[in-house]
């Protein structure tokens, strides 16, 4: 009887923890960037450091949290499709020889992401939707905006 109660409590806690960690993310852009939408393959190329210039010639920089952070689990799974360690190694390789303008910049908080994207022409970032402010533009991803049904970076 006690073991059943403990099992139910454990299951409840596990479900609650997974729901609490599920977040809706958004793709944001520097306001000077000329695009308002991006396809999934385009985002994957940027996330893997394979695209280094926008069509208008600006250097591309992706700004994100550490791949090992719980906030980035969904991005690691849905965008990168590889382990956290492999993503960390990929970031190091993508930035090799690009000390003046890294392909991928890893920062500590969503506020840092928004601030860096706002300050760096050509930058995009992946951030919690509740961290967005007027200093950045929200980019449609695969034709959808955050919180629309079918949006790729929806947390649940």
Give a brief rundown of this model:
The chain has helices spanning 2-21, 40-47, 73-80, 84-95, 110-119, and strands at 25-30, 37-38, 61-64, 104-106, 123-128, 136-138, 140-141. With 156 residues, it is of the alpha/beta class.
Q: Care to describe what's here?
A:
The chain is α/β, with parallel strands linked by helices and 156 residues long. It is built from 5 helices and 7 strands; from the N terminus they run αββαβααβαβββ. It has a 5-stranded mixed sheet. Strands 2-7 form a two-stranded parallel sheet. The longest helix is centred in the first third of the chain and has 20 residues. The radius of gyration is 17 Å and the shape is globular.
Measured distance between first and last alpha carbons: 33 Å
Give the ordered list of helices and strands.
HEEHEHHEHEEE
Structural class: alpha/beta
The value of Rg in angstroms is: 17 Å
Q: Give the mean pLDDT.
A: 87
Q: Portion of residues in helices? A: 25-40%
Query: How many strands appear in the DSSP assignment?
Result: 7
- Quaternary organisation: single chain
Shape: globular
CATH topology: D-Maltodextrin-Binding Protein, domain 2
Query: Count of DSSP helices?
Result: 5
Q: Sheet bearing the most strands, described?
A: 5 strands, mixed
Residue fraction in strands = 15-25%
The CATH homology group name: Periplasmic binding protein-like II
Low-confidence stretches: 10-21
